Amino acid sequence: MKALNLFRKLGAYWGTNNTDHQARICHSTTVTGVANTWGYGAMTNSFNDIRNAKTLIIWGGNPAEAHPVSLQHLLEGKELNRANFIVVDPRMTRTAAHATEYVRIRPGTDIPVLWGMLWHVFHNGWDDKEFIKQRVYGFEETRKEIDKWNPEEVERVSGVPGEQLKRVAEMFATQKPATLIWCMGQTQHSVGTANVRASCIALLATGNVGKPGTGANIFRGHDNVQGATDVGLDVVTLPFYYGLSEKAWQHWSRVWETDYEWLRSRFDSKEIMEAPGIPLTRWFDAALLPKEQVAQKDNIRAMFVQGHASNSITRIPESMKGFVKLDLLVIADPHPTTWASLSVQAGRKEGTYLLPVCTQFESSGSRVASNRSLQWGEQIVKPSFESKDDYEVMYLIAKKLGFADRMFKNIKVENDRPSPEDLLREINRGSWSTGYTGQSPERLKLHMANQKDFDLVTLRANSGPCKGDYYGLPWPCWGKPEVKHPGTPILYNAGISAMDGGSGFRPRFGVERNGQTLLAEGSYPVGSEIQDGYPEFTMAVLKKLGWDKDLTPDELSVIQKVGGAKIDEVSWSTDLSGGIQRVALKHGCVPYGNGKARTIAWNLPDPTPVHREPIYTPRVELVAKYPTLPDAKQFRLPNIGFSVQKAAVDKGIAKQFPLILSSGRLVEYEGGGEETRSNKWLAELQQDMFIEINTSDAAERGIKDGAWVWVTGAENASKARMKALVTDRVGRGVAWMPFHFGGWFEGEDLRRNYPQGIDPIVLGESANTITTYGYDPATGMQEPKATLCQIRAA
Amino acid sequence: MARMKFLCDADRCIECNSCVTACKNEHEVPWGINRRRLVTINDGEPGERSISMACMHCTDAPCQAVCPVNCIYTTADGVVLHSKDLCIGCGYCFYACPFGAPQYPQVGNFGSRGKMDKCTFCTGGPETDGSAAEYEKYGSNRLAEGKLPLCAEMCATKSLLAGDGDVIKEIYEDRVTTRGYGSGAWGWGTAYPESAGS
User: Fold this and answer.
1) Closest residue to B157, CB basis, from A75, A681, A727
2) β-pair partners for A660
3) CATH 3.40.30.10 fits A42-218, yes or no
4) Lowest mean pLDDT across A173-177, B69-73, B93-97, B178-182
5) Is the CB of residue B50 less than 8 Å away from at least one CB of chain A?
6) Which of A161, A415, A452, B126 lies deepest, with the highest CB count within 10 Å?
């Protein structure tokens, strides 16, 4: 987590916002969609808490393969509560094998099915009226969209029968607590942000947020990917969601004790310093498009990749062209990764460097789990060969670039390795907005040493030195470590006090809109001295309440220093003394305020989520009614999804490529797969790249199970050779590929392109050779879950 | 005295292969030899179920009865082991085993069989406990160190249980009572007829 924070900081000191990470292609849409609904973009509850649910819906996720350990909690919950276990997915997955109800949908129709479910909820009066009245804004407007999705239209678009959906809706709304769990099946779409917002709205309509057993349980996929998101290794924000505004830069320049003007001088202009960067999904577009279409001074000419696979990014034939355009390509990784084999294949001869970086097991430091808990990891083994850990790599780069002294001003560095403890302390000093302030290295290490004291379901220590704390101090853990806030195991739970981890929704979108309040009405955490909604705490609010006199002189002097002439504007998120947070908590209040969640996000391209057909859809007759958004400019680049969709319809692409192509994960491999395909035991279990094809589609094409096939894609005359897995796991007209394979391209084995002796045991075609254009307008998320292909026997 | 048994709760098994991987890594089992493996029925269809299978260490082991060189024996803990020094790779035990547990490396031309290999319940073989010779032939001996088989220890969903037969039987019965269903302790009737019906 701290290494990722350093990576972002390195970008800031180098002078770029073009710093991004893996979550761009996992949960960037979740973070944006969920934060825009109720404040923070993270799992609201925890894996463990799912044991409390009476109804679980897993919508667009296959945790039996992607998160196998989570199934321990899901299956125990199912057994203990005799819970409804519903899986909504285009594939009858290994998770669906354990479901009490499986709902098959057409890829890319999540919103119609979610609205169809809510249509039944509202038409039968199953909505939670009290919860909505107190804690939600915007349902009058959102209902208009939901009302369009009657059972007939839902079935016409998605294929889900009305009776089945009514049954699921009734369970979800009336057999409570209910939780909605999702993963890449919802997020990896050109409508990803809208998908997850519709899911949140389903939870809000039924009052299934902010209590044990409820919530948006968003499963994050990698060790510490939640932490990577929080530390702002992102193109749209500085660490901890402060954004890129001058205020945000000023905040971090104070925390880092680096002169703002110096940071400003690192960028071409103040505008570019405050402008979102280019997401990793589109690096090759930024390298290839005419210069005048890229809204920065030049195309992307150099790329530094630390621990990211290339084959998990869509449109590989385009990235092959991009490789040749770069002046410099650096791959820092324990494995050479597909960047190496593909860039050699693309014809790249000079200016490519492989830096050996060690794994997390060879380093130490804190990691953030999906449920916002932090854990301290110890070094298990020393780094192999000459590899270095992430901290050292970044320190040495900063040193070479000449700003290591500034960047590591308050960090102890020994033998070129910055101290992980000091790195966390610096985060603790600046991350007020997200409550990463109370998790000192000392508190985290105490948790690790006393794991036995924590309860399996509540996560709370009932005895021992951590008594009262929740395991890993899940953020927000307010105030300084001395405040001893226990962490927040369940977000937005008004049923407990602020000092027990209780809170309302975060009023992040103002206090009023169209004459209606955006603050909570009659709902507040237990023990709150303000028994209603309230805005975020600022110095002005403290003064108005007369609580400013509770500040200590030391706290006040820090606040004066931060605020200068505008002391009233200093808030819970910018006060470096922690005084404002401490005083709010003392009065039973949550520093960020107590607001309503909203179903309309007026700052997003689609304020209310609406169905939009995938860019490449087989249902061309639906495009006129449900087109994708108009072309626009986002993240310094054009997004021409509308033109691409229109051209596909005009050219009859769906006739040439009649099968829907989706992609996903296997339990044996992880991410781009170079590391796991290099593991002999895992490699033995999955030796061949394959595509799942429905028995009827296979029969029509004369394809036998296990036979070689050519898969062709809708762009770039793309083709890939792999084995066929003939199965009814996928519905008729749908094909599915795992995305972990790499090292083959268009039927050719590229083993020779790897440095000798470190090539993975198993190589195979990459699914993303076939995937196509499509980007979520709010996040730049790619579209690997719904495109078109054709399959023929090889 | 405790009698060791395996039990795979098919309502919990998600075919994640962590048992298989744990076994392979713990004992350095080469490619092509599967001391433990996953069996999935109705793959991709409603009713799909998976189960993790290995030697069940039967009470009255049929492999032991048919072995022409008497290389298979049962330990005091109820674990069925064999001596690779005595084994002649005849394959009789494979035909006798109701679970398909015995495995044979191919050692020469025409697919001739090498010495039989199978799950040892992480208990090694006749050599001195924990010795290098034991490890090379049979893998590690966790039981001698007071540890249970790694496959069950690594099971993601606590589907695979290993240990004292009475204890795991109780755990499974509690589960079935709580959830109100259970597809049965698969293989127990065959492997442990004395506990049949439970």
Assistant:
1) A75
2) A734, A788
3) no
4) B178-182
5) yes
6) B126
Identify which of A68, A668, A680 has the shortest CB distance to residue B14.
A68
B177 touches chain A (CB under 8 A): no
pLDDT of residue A173 exceeding 80:
yes
Q: Between chains, do A80 and B50 touch, taking CB under 8 Å as contact?
A: no
Distances (CA, A) of A758 to A680, A681, A753: 13, 16, 11
Q: Report how far residue B117's alpha carbon sits from residue B89's, in angstroms, rounded to the nearest whole number.
A: 9
Considering only residues 5 to 34 of chain B, which have any Cβ-Cβ distance to chain A shorter than 8 Å?
11-12, 14-18, 20-21, 24-25, 31
Q: Above 60 in pLDDT, residue A344?
A: yes
Q: Please check whether residue B77 touches A, CB under 8 A.
A: no
Mean pLDDT over A60-85 rounds to 96
Collapsing DSSP states into helix, strand and coil, what is residue A91? strand
B48 to A92: CB separation less than 8 angstroms, yes or no: yes
pLDDT at B196: 60
Residue type, A640: I
In this structure, is the dihedral angle defined by the CA atoms of residues A423, A426, A432 and A435, taken in order, positive or negative?
positive
Q: How far is A471 from chain B (nearest CA, A)?
A: 20
- Work out the mean pLDDT of chain A and round it to a whole number: 97
- Residue A756 pLDDT: 87
Residue B182: pLDDT over 90: no
- pLDDT category at B198 given cuts 50, 70, 90 is very low
- The CATH architecture one would assign to domain A620-793 is Beta Barrel (2.40)
pLDDT tens-digit series, residues B33-62: 999 999 999 999 989 999 999 999 999 999
**Structure tokens, A719:** 């083709």
Among A611, A618, A616, CA closest to A644: A616
Interface pTM (ipTM) of the complex? 0.95
Domain A2-21+225-432 class in CATH = alpha beta
β-bridge pairing A690-693 and A734-738: antiparallel
User: What is the amino acid identity at position B77?
Assistant: D
The secondary element (H helix, E strand) that includes residue A708 is: strand A708-713
CATH fit for domain B4-195, picks 3.30.70.20, 3.40.50.300, 3.40.50.1820, 3.30.530.20: 3.30.70.20
Using CB atoms, pick whichever of A64, A78, A79 lies closest to residue B16.
Answer: A64
Subunit contact A65:B24, Cβ cutoff 8 A: no
Q: What is the DSSP string of chain B?
A: ---EEEEE-TTT-----HHHHHHHHHHTPPTT--SEEEEEESTTSTT-EEEEEE----TT-HHHHH-TT--EEE-TTS-EEE-TTT-----HHHHH-TT---B--B-SGGG-B-S-B---TTB--SSPTT-HHHHHHH--B-GGGT---HHHHT-TTS-EEEEEHHHHHHHHHHHHHHHS-----TTHHHH-GGGTT-
Q: Can you state the percent helix, strand and coil of chain A, rounding each to 5?
A: 40, 15, 45
User: In this structure, are residues A532 and A544 in contact, taking their beta carbons and an 8 Å threshold?
Assistant: no
Using the Cβ of A705 and the Cβ atoms of chain B, whether some distance falls under 8 Å is answered with no
Q: Please give the structure tokens belonging to residue A677.
A: 């395909």
The Cα–Cα gap between A245 and A243 comes to: 6
Chain B residues within an 8 Å CB radius of A72: 156-158
Helix (H) or strand (E) holding A75: helix A70-80
Residue A484, classed as helix, strand or coil, is coil
CA distance B128 to B187: 31
CA Rg, chain A, in Å? Answer: 25
Name the residue ranges covered by the structural domains of chain B. 4-195
pLDDT of residue B108: 78
Position A518: which residue type? Answer: L
Q: Which two structure tokens, joined as six digits, stand for A86? A: 């519903």
Is the confidence at residue A425, as pLDDT, over 80? yes
Q: Do A497 and A488 meet the contact criterion of CB atoms below 8 Å apart?
A: no
- Give the closest of A94, A682, A729 to B14, CB-based: A94
